[in-house]
Design a protein that fits this description.
Elements: E1 2-11, E2 14-24, E3 29-33, H1 40-48, E4 55-60, E5 63-64, H2 70-76, E6 78-81, H3 93-99, H4 107-120, H5 122-125, H6 137-149, E7 155-159, H7 167-182, E8 186-191, H8 194-200, E9 203-208, E10 211-216, H9 218-223, H10 225-231
Parallel strand pairs: 3-8, 3-9, 6-7, 7-8
Antiparallel strand pairs: 1-2, 1-4, 4-5, 9-10
The structure holds adenosine-5'-triphosphate (ATP) and magnesium ion (MG).
Length: about 230
C-alpha cells in the first residue's frame, strides 16, 4: 500500500535521509526503529508531506504522492500522529478531535468515526470539555492517536507513541494499536523502544544515519546479533 523508494531528505543542505526504502503492505504493522537522530521522524514527515523529498519516490496504493501537499495525502488516507503529540493544549478534547477530521465534510461519517475513537479510548469520551493540556501524558497520547484516527486513515503513522508515558499505559496504547490494526488500519510505527515495537510488528526496518541498514520480520530482527548488541544491550 505504501512504497518508499530511494528517499532523500535534507535540512538546509544537510542530508538527514540518504537512502530510505521501505514498504507497508495492506493490513500490516510495520516498525521503523533506530537510535536518536537517525532519521525516523524525518521519514514519517516526508511520507506525510511535511518535509520535501530531494529525491526518491513515495507511492500510496500505486499512486505517486511525492509532490502532493499534506492535506491531499490525508484525504487519500495517510495520517500522522506526530512526535511529542502536538495536541492543542488550550483547546478542549472535543475540538482537538474535530480538528483531526479537517479534510472531511460528511457529519454522519465524522460522528461514526468519533464513536469508534470513543470505543478505543473511552477516557476521551468522559473528558470532552476538558482542556487537552490539563490531561496526563498518557491521556494526551490517546488524544493524539484519536485525532489521527478522525481523518479515517487507511495508514496510521505514529512517531514514538510510548514517549513520556507510564509503562502501564505504553502496554495499553500498544494493545489498542493492535486492535485498531485488526479493524483494518495499516500501521507504520516509529519507536526507540525497539523491543516493544518489534514485538507487535509483522515487519521491521532499522534506520541508521539516514539509511535503512537492516530489515526483516519482528522476530528476525529481535534475534539478530547486531540488533542485540547495538540496540538491546545484550
Ligand atoms: N528541523 C530540523 N532542522 C535541521 N536539522 C534537523 C531538523 N530535524 C531533524 N534534523 C536532523 O536530521 C537528522 C534526523 O533527525 P530525526 O528527527 O528525523 O531523527 P529521529 O530518528 O526521529 O530522532 P529522535 O529519536 O531523536 O526522535 C538529525 O541529524 C537531526 O539533527
Ligand atoms: Mg524522532
Amino acid at each position: 500500500m505504501l512504497e518508499v523508494e530511494a528517499l532523500k531528505v535534507s535540512y538546509n543542505g544537510v542530508p538527514a535521509l540518504s537512502q530510505v526504502d521501505l514498504k507497508v503492505t495492506q493490513g500490516s504493522i510495520v516498525a521503523l526503529v533506530g537510535g536518536n537522530g537517525n532519521g525516523k521522524s524525518t521519514t514519517l514527515r516526508a511520507i506525510a508531506g511535511l518535509n520535501r523529498a530531494d529525491a526518491g519516490q513515495i507511492r500510496f496504493n500505486g499512486q505517486p504522492i511525492t509532490a502532493l501537499p499534506t492535506s491531499k495525502r490525508v484525504a487519500l488516507g495517510i495520517s500522522l500522529v506526530p512526535e511529542g503529540r502536538r495536541i492543542f493544549p488550550k483547546l478542549s478534547v472535543m475540538r482537538n478531535l474535530e480538528l483531526g477530521a479537517y479534510t472531511r465534510r460528511d457529519r454522519h461519517e465524522i460522528d461514526a468515526t468519533l464513536a469508534e475513537v470513543f470505543g478505543w479510548f473511552p477516557v476521551l469520551k468522559s473528558r470532552l470539555a476538558q482542556l487537552a493540556g490539563t490531561m496526563s501524558g498518557g491521556e494526551q497520547q490517546m488524544l493524539a492517536i484519536g485525532r489521527g484516527l478522525m481523518a479515517k486513515p487507511s495508514l496510521l503513522m505514529l512517531d514514538e507513541p510510548s514517549w513520556g508515558i507510564a509503562p502501564k499505559l505504553v502496554t495499553k496504547v500498544l494493545d489498542t494499536l493492535i486492535e485498531i490494526n485488526r479493524q483494518g488500519v495499516s500501521i507504520l510505527l516509529v519507536e526507540q523502544n525497539l523491543e516493544r515495537a518489534l514485538a507487535i510488528a509483522n515487519y521491521g526496518y532499522v534506520i541508521q544515519t539516514g539509511r535503512i541498514v537492516l530489515e526483516g520480520t519482528g522476530r528476525d530482527l529481535l534475534d539478530n546479533e547486531d540488533v542485540k548488541k547495538a540496540y538491546l544491550g545484550l
